[in-house]
Write a structure and sequence with these properties.
By secondary structure, this protein is mainly alpha-helical. The protein has eleven helices and two strands; from the N terminus they run ααααααββααααα. It has one domain: Orthogonal Bundle (Fic-like fold), CATH 1.10.3290. Helix content is 69%, strand content 2%.
Length: 262
């Protein structure tokens, strides 16, 4: 497998500008409004973590769980992972090292880590029609992925690129989707963007189908930017934009409520 060359990535810059405009509006509210506090943003994130059933819905958890008990454990592990990420961000640590992948593995998929502690997968895996790289290739591909990430300046592009390529590599025996999405959100939140999740069955289907089409096309033409890969990047930008607007509305509502109470 060849990684997607970073020099061929084509992003919708106007949408990135739109996202940045909303994010700046959020910080203007927090900094300049008399009715907001410095903690409002973090409190909004934490509220989402403490209400994961409302944020993701149990339906989303069941897409990666076979029964109610597995869904409950999934949500607990996701909560622990997000709390860990927020703590690391508060310490000034961005997601940028391989060792952090294994930290997330232990939190989000402890059953996988118990079977293969601190190791990449040792078997061949297939996602739909996509045959993932041979086990002996995984370590080198992951190392190269982190190397490539250091050469991407835009944090949104970096997060989406990492998501796309780590799923293609599928480095672990299980839990790859969960680990990848948490790592992506770590990068986004570190750079003051909101976390994004797939929160219903329809979105999940589109997400899976778009990735499958992108992988298929890149297997045929690994050096060529294609419409399916472009669609995945665009869909991720849409999710960030939607969540940015939702975050603005939540922060603004906090201020309006305080104003009415005075």
């Amino acid at each position: 497998m060849e990684l997607l060359p970073i020099n061929i990535i084509q992003l919708n810059q106007s949408k990135i500008n739109e996202i940045d405009k909303v994010i700046k509006s959020i910080y203007r509210l927090i900094i300049y409004s008399r009715h907001h506090l410095d903690d409002d943003l973090l409190d909004t994130y934490l509220a989402g973590i403490h209400n994961l059933k409302e944020l993701l819905s149990i339906k989303n958890a069941q897409m990666e769980a076979q029964n109610e008990e597995e869904a409950r454990v999934y949500l607990i592990n996701l909560k622990l992972s997000l709390e860990f990420v927020i703590e690391e961000i508060n310490l000034g640590n961005n997601f940028e090292k391989e060792i952090q992948l294994f930290q997330l593995l232990r939190l989000i998929s402890p059953e996988t880590n118990a079977l293969h502690p601190n190791r990449y997968r040792q078997t061949v895996v297939q996602i739909g029609n996509h045959i993932c790289p041979e086990p002996q290739e995984v370590s080198g591909l992951v190392a190269n992925l982190f190397f490539q990430m250091h050469h991407i300046q835009n944090p949104i592009a970096k997060a989406i690129y990492f998501h796309h390529e780590l799923i293609r590599i599928h480095p672990f025996a299980d839990g790859n989707g969960r680990i990848t999405r948490i790592a992506k959100n770590w990068m986004l939140m570190y750079n003051l963007y909101p976390p994004i999740f797939i929160n219903d069955a329809h979105q999940k289907k589109i997400y899976i189908n778009t990735l499958a089409s992108s992988f298929r096309e890149l297997n045929r033409f690994p050096q060529k930017w294609n419409e399916h890969t472009a669609n995945f990047f665009e869909q991720e930008l849409d999710r960030i934009l939607i969540n940015s607007n939702l975050l603005y509305e939540a922060i603004n509502k906090i201020g309006l409520n305080r104003k009415q109470e005075q």
